[in-house]
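Priority: medium. Attachment 1 of 2:
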């Protein structure tokens, strides 16, 4: 059974940084590309970043140069390093496979505000 548990969110000032973690199970990191998604209040969930085969990465234009996705197969964990955070990055962040499957976890709240 696949479980995804996100953590690392919080309240940060504009320009600050956070590192999100996603603990995975079921060996899915070795099977599927993994990604991070986010859902802001009143908006649809959107894809943010993905990692394929541990090294190839892609990002939505709005986070390019600020966010970095990485994975540690030994720890079964996917990370999202977020730098230069902006108020518009405020959202609940989720990890999932890419394309997403019915594995959604609870997510972790990121709030960027002064």
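Attachment 2 of 2:
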């Amino acid at each position: 059974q696949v479980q995804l548990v996100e953590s690392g969110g919080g309240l940060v000032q504009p320009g600050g940084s956070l590192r999100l973690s996603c603990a995975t199970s079921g060996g899915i990191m070795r099977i599927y590309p993994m990604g991070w998604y986010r859902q802001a209040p009143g908006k649809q969930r959107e894809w943010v970043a993905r990692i394929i085969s541990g090294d190839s990465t892609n990002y939505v234009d709005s986070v390019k140069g600020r966010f970095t996705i990485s994975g540690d197969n030994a720890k079964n964990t996917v990370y999202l390093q977020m730098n230069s955070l902006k108020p518009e990055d405020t959202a609940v962040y989720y990890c999932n496979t890419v394309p997403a499957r019915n594995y959604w976890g609870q997510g972790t709240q990121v709030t960027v505000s002064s």
